[in-house]
Prior knowledge:
Layout: H1 11-22, H2 28-35, H3 39-51
Helix pairs in contact: 2-3
InterPro entries: AsnC-type_HTH_dom, WH-like_DNA-bd_sf, WH_DNA-bd_sf
Protein name: AsnC family protein
Domain HTH asnC-type: 14-49
Amino acid sequence: MQDVAPPLLTEDELALINGLQLRPRASWAELGRALEVDPVTVARRFGRLSDQGAA
């Protein structure tokens, strides 16, 4: 049986993680402005990363 490699992170996901490392208490709205995406998108993306154990 082969080990399954964890999925690679996208540039957008890496940018979100980087933003949270720089400003861990930033709101979704602040991160959304910085990443040029809707705050709801940021929250959903973080939720997926968290569910996958990547954040």
